[in-house]
Amino acid sequence: MPKMKTKSSAKKRFRVRPGGTVKRGHAFKRHILTKKSTKTKRQLRGAANVHETNLGHVAQMLPFAGL
User: What's in the GO CC field (predicted)?
Assistant: First the structure.
């Protein structure tokens, strides 16, 4: 059997919190920010949780995260 590997893209994007929820960043906050309103950019600050319907996919990409 080959070794299980963590997806490198996933380990850069997600962090597992102590309660078992998964933290993620918001999309649409990287570039082309001049045409976005201040309100939109402010609401994209901070972290969000991965939705429970997507936790299975994240768990497959992060096999050693304990999800």
Answer: cytosolic large ribosomal subunit
